[in-house]
Peptide methionine sulfoxide reductase A5
Amino acid sequence: MTRRGSLLPVFLSHHFSLLLLIVAGVLIASPATGIRLPDRKSEPPPAPSYSLKTAVFALGSFWRSEAVFGCLNGVVRTTVGYSGGSKPNPEYRSLGDHAESVQIEYDPKVISYRQLLEVFWSSHDSRQVFGQGPDVGNQYRSIIFTNGTSESRLASISKEREQAKSKSSIVTTQIQPLETFYPAEPEHQKFELKRRPFLQHLIGNLPEEELQRSTLAARMNSYAAELCPPRIQRQIDAKINDIIRKGWPVLRDI
Ligand SMILES: *[C@@H]1O[C@H](CO)[C@@H](O)[C@H](O)[C@H]1NC(C)=O
């Protein structure tokens, strides 16, 4: 927005006081001038929601699953919940036959379903029976929920490829059509981020509803779990250090 060419005539004109106002405004808005209170201005949505697609996966504890996908370029929103079972209105302490799941809203122009599948396979042990890592139980089973024949075909191909890597054990992952996804209670959303009040503060202490829809919160949730790619982790580290040095403006984007 610098208009060097037109600056001098403006300076000499009777609009001089207006220019001063503009300069003052720029200085006040600049993070370099010091302390700024967190405000709650919401971020603009990265893409119109009609062009977004949704994918649902189960791969162990949903706290971690959400963090696995939240930092990926093209992922706009993440939500944890319950899916794959028949119990109506499951809750964390009584989820019945459902699996802990993550719902991912993504921009298919930036990241494809195929790429999400790759992340799914590389982020958990699909051969572990009745659990994932230290988490034991049916709720931690591995599932790809599909919507339509194209997704279920891609899912099957990716599973065959995964099984072909080694025949010594069975890939336990199920592929099933998505029925209902029940969002989990608020305290389970962005769980990793909520464990780090400092990081929550850094992005402006978003109210719960906004936190759940925020792309930045999804990314910072991954960062908190150290599940962003190493390069991105370092970038965010640097931004945070910069903010601390300058005195608490708000982290808006990464
Ligand atoms: C399934 O896909 C269709 C478009 O292919 C979409 O309109 C619909 O909302 C999707 N359903 C779910 C549950 O994501």
User: Anything to note?
Assistant: Residues 193 and 220 are 6 Å apart (CA to CA). Residues 190-246 form one domain.
